[in-house]
Amino acid sequence: MADEAKQSGISIDTESLAKALQMPVLQISAKYGDGLPKALQAASQIINQNQPATDPQVISQLLQEDNQIEQEMEALIQHHVQIPATLTNNTTDKIDKVCCISGLAYPYFS
């Protein structure tokens, strides 16, 4: 929703966020297709790295650290995303409907 974010005055420093996360961060607009080719290319590169399979115990441990991950995400968003103080309820409702996956508390930016 890069187009919606821009229209609402939200700016995301994708370069610094990518460095902080140590992974690619790309803004896309699924509505208009902007950024999709780059996102697909980045995903393909990561998939084709032939990383060894992750041990289920490691996955379990990561899931148990959910609270820490949530706090880190909040800190990253506060540091790298600027949201104007004058967002209307209508705008935030639209963003919430699209950006929050049912059953998960993590927003995602597309």
Short key terms for the protein model shown above:
single chain; mainly alpha; 110 residues; 6 helices; two-stranded antiparallel ribbon
Number of strands: 2
Which stretches are low in confidence, meaning pLDDT under 50 for 5 or more residues running? none
Could you report the average pLDDT, rounded to the nearest whole number? Answer: 78
Instruction: Quickly give the structural class.
Output: mainly alpha
Helix coverage percent: 55-70%
Number of helices: 6
Report on the biggest sheet.
2 strands, antiparallel
State the distance separating the first and last CA atoms. 5 Å
Strand content: under 5%
* Shape by Cα distribution: globular
The Cα radius of gyration reads: 16 Å
Spatial strand sequence of the major β-sheet? 1-2
Summarize the structure.
This protein has 110 residues and is mostly helical. The chain is 55% helix and 4% strand. The protein has a two-stranded antiparallel ribbon with strand order 1-2.
Explain what the structure shows.
The protein is mainly α and 110 residues long. Helices cover 55% and strands 4% of the residues. The longest helix is centred in the middle third of the chain and has 15 residues, at 66-80.
Topology (elements, then pairings):
Elements: H1 2-7, E1 11-12, H2 14-21, H3 36-47, H4 56-64, H5 66-80, E2 81-82, H6 89-99
Antiparallel strand pairs: 1-2
